[in-house]
Structures are given as C-alpha cells and as structure tokens.
Amino acid sequence: MTIPETMQAMVLTGHGGLDRYEWYEDWPVPEPGPTDVLIKVGACGLNNTDVNTRTGWYSKAVSEATTGGAYDEVGEEDPTWGGRPLVFPRIQGADAVGTVVAVGDKADPSLIGKRVMVNGWLRDWDDPDNMDKTGYYGSECDGGFAQYATADMRGIATVESPLSDAELATFSCSYTTAEGMLERARVGPGDTVLVPGASGGVGGALVQLARLRGARVIAMASEAKHADVAKLGPDRILPRGPEDLRAALGDEKITVVADVVGGSYWPKLIDILERGGRYTCSGAIAGPIVQFDLRTFYLRDLTFTGSTVLPPEVFENVVRYIEEGKLQPVLAATYPLRELREAQQAFIDKTHTGNIVVVP
C-alpha cells in the first residue's frame, strides 16, 4: 500500500488539563527505524498512565487523588511514571492495535499485513530484563493516538483472534498490569483475592486472571455496576466501600488484596488480610498517601509488592490467553480519535464500566 506523508494525530503539548492536547490533520507519519515496524492503527485503548502522565500526577509534588485536571504544582524532574521529565510534543497511547504496513531494513518483512498488539514496555533488547533500561510506549516514545505508529518488532505480538481491533485494544495495559500484579503476589489455587475497583479496566482484568489461576475472587464495586462486574465471573461482589469490611466479608479469609485504588479506605483492606497474606499494588486512583500501621504489617507477617515494570513473558501470557479465548474483553465504549478529550473525560469520570478505546 502507499504510505501517506502526513496523518491525523492527537498531540500532547505539555502537562496540564485536557486543553494540552492539540489535534493535527497533517502530522508527519513516522519513519520506522531499522528493527521497527510501521503500524496502521486500528484502535488504541485509554489507561490511567495516559491521564497521570498528561497531568504530571506521578510527581511527588502531587499528593491528591487522580483528578484528570491540572495540578497547582508539578515537579519538573519527576512528572512521569519513571520519575523523569517528558519530552514534548508527544503522541500518547500505549494500547495500540493495528496492521503492519511497512518494516525497517532489519525487521521481518513477513510481518507486513499481520495484525499486531503493541507491548507497552520498551526495552533494551540487549538486556531485556533490566528494569532500569525500560520505557513506556506513548511516554518515552510516540504511541498510538494517531493513524500510524512505529514499534520495535520485538515489542509487538501478532494475534490470531476473532476479536475486533477495538476489543483487542482493551487488553495490553490493563491485563498485563493485572497479570503482573498476580504474578508478583504468587496467586494460585487456595487463594482468596479481594479486588477493589473491580469495575475498572485493571480491576476487571484482575477478576478474570485470578480466576484463571484457580483463586476465589471477591470483587468490590459500586452497586450500580454490579451487574456488569458479575459478567466477569467473580465468586462474590461487595459494595465499593463497606463501613465494616470484616462483617461484609463474613467468613471469607482474604489471602491477597490486589489494589489499584488506595486512598482513605486503604487501612481497612490491610486489616482484613490473613496472617501471611499478600498485598499487591499498581495504582492509587483514590489517593497515593495512606495511613500505614507498621504493627499490622509486621505482626501479621504480611508481604507487600509493588508492580510496574513487567518481564516480557507477562505480555506473552496475556496474548496466549487471548488466542485461546480465555479472556473476555470489557469494551465499554469507542470514540473517534479526534474526540480523545471527551473519551478521556469519560474515562476519568468512570462514566462506563470497563475500557474505553479511540479509533482513528
């Protein structure tokens, strides 16, 4: 096919509110590097990293919950997930799915015409397991909020699936994040996993993936979203924040809390963990600053694991589950790419249950 010289793209021009996105009809189509492929983007999912990077929420200067709006103060040196400055202008979008239309000089030409998912984690392919040498797609390089995007051929996966591009675009960030959390917490048969925020993208992924590991799963979500959460197969569903969590759980013995919420409710989650239990975290949308009683931590022999940078096999596992039909996409809504601002506001407001995708 003929590759155009320019494309439509939503470009982030600086940290702040949604007004920092600018729409372009004539942004240059990127040139693939030697080991890169050029992807005609079919769909790209939204995730919290997009929001938090735009606003600069990762900066230690910010202590409040994720709001999606501009903050009064954002540190210049640590506004991104990796604690480093972001280079502007930047095309965000980590969850890109599309068709390979061209390849670099050293890339595999047989990839042309194949449908692919992008692995959000950028790696030094001479040292792929080194966490200190990682970046994130749409953060340290341009991503999928455009008609075309490039990616290293070693950071993509071809996918054989009847699912649409929009459905596939719900998986990369949410499901690899969830799988990484469960792997760090060593979840398996015999565990009972409590999932706060189960109506979100990562929360819904945690429910499904923990079930695949043979665990019992208890989801927490606002009651208006219980019917949607029930479709994911949790063993029980609780309200979003019961005043007496222990009473709400009854005789349930919680061995793992898999959390992306944090906030003021956090101590109650820790208090109900069984002795020797595990807490795993990859987010703090309700607030990053929590009250932590060290006595609960050490007297109950608890293990805490943070989960951000993931080994390559996590993405490979998720792709395999997709191809085997073991995961259910939770596609809440699709928006045209030019309506990214509206889509991201709906994501922030939790207007929908599940994942939101933009389509060029």
Automatic annotation (TrEMBL):
GO molecular function: NADPH binding; oxidoreductase activity, acting on NAD(P)H; zinc ion binding
PROSITE patterns: QOR_ZETA_CRYSTAL (PS01162)
Residue ranges of every copy of the Enoyl reductase (ER) domain listed in the record: 16-358
Keyword set includes Oxidoreductase: yes
Protein name, UniProt field: Alcohol dehydrogenase
Pfam families for this protein: ADH_N, ADH_zinc_N
Alphabetical UniProt keywords: NADP, Oxidoreductase
Keyword Isomerase on entry: no
Cross-referenced InterPro entries: ADH-like_C, ADH-like_N, ER, GroES-like_sf, NAD(P)-bd_dom_sf, Quin_OxRdtase/zeta-crystal_CS
SMART domains linked: PKS_ER
